[in-house]
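Lecture 7 notes: from sequence to structure.

We start with a single chain of 333 residues. Read the sequence below before looking at the structure.
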Amino acid sequence: NELVEIIKPACKDTRRPGCDADLGGFGGLFDLAAAGYDSANTVLIGATDGVGTKLRIAQATNNHKYVGIDLVAMCVNDLIVAGGEPLFFLDYYATGRLAVEEAASVVRGIAEGCKQAGCGLIGGETAEMPSMYAPGDYDLAGFSVGAVDRNSILPSNVGAGDVLLGLTSSGIHSNGFSLVRKLLEKEGVGYESPCPWDSSAATIGDSLLTPTKIYVKSCLPLIKNKLLNGMAHITGGGLLENLPRVLPKGVVAEITGHPALPAVFKWMQETSGLDDKEMLKTFNCGIGMVLVVKSDKVEEAKTLLQTVGETAFDLGVLVSGEGAQVVMKRCLS
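Now the structure, written as tokens:
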């Protein structure tokens, strides 16, 4: 009850048409009509995810204020790929013994992520299970629901000649942290050590906890203006495994303009010895979202992205072909 009272103001700040973000009921309510959707022509989209072993870094550094943003990002970024608008979010927080202020910090981060994504935080569950979690441990899961007009579901009409635009990531996001943690151990550095790839970060831990970028407000204007034919959220499996998920059979992505590796990924590659292919299957390598756009709409899409402060890279093109569906035409370095 103490936790609920602490987090109520943060949750209330996520109110939007369709929900009032009140806590305390047995279930959260959302009114599709109040949000402007015609239920007869609306398809709901669901997405669920977690933050993975990035939580270990938050727990080790006692910095819990960003992993909630990660949790929302991993769900809503998956959801908008279908062409939909995130409507509401629910969270699950499980721990051995509830530390109220720690949990409140996590939920405030979740509320901040919901504000960035424009969705209401309408409920959640806090589970205290002493026999399941060691002292100081907790785990998170998130659940988001969105809506899309049934005639606007993505991907749609993706084919040869389409252009690929890449949107930058904010860092490692929330994938690959089991390897990251092993590399830090191998190099004999800790989370409180000076950051070797970013002099502006106070410590390695601070840099690694940079929250996952939320692409909703960048991409929704393009979706609503029907400028996109497909999108790929670059998460676990990287560019090589996520981009093919939106490509039809017989279409190959030729990557001709992948930007140089940001410093954090350059350090990871040099330290691990991974080649480009393995890097592209493990990390986002600086590109967190890929947009599929018809060639005659590229400039309009770029202009809209610029108005929201987003920079788009000319990542490549789609061509007819068989075999591997992502072909790198240049090295990452």
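Residues 100-117 form the longest helix (18 residues). Keep this in mind for problem set 3.
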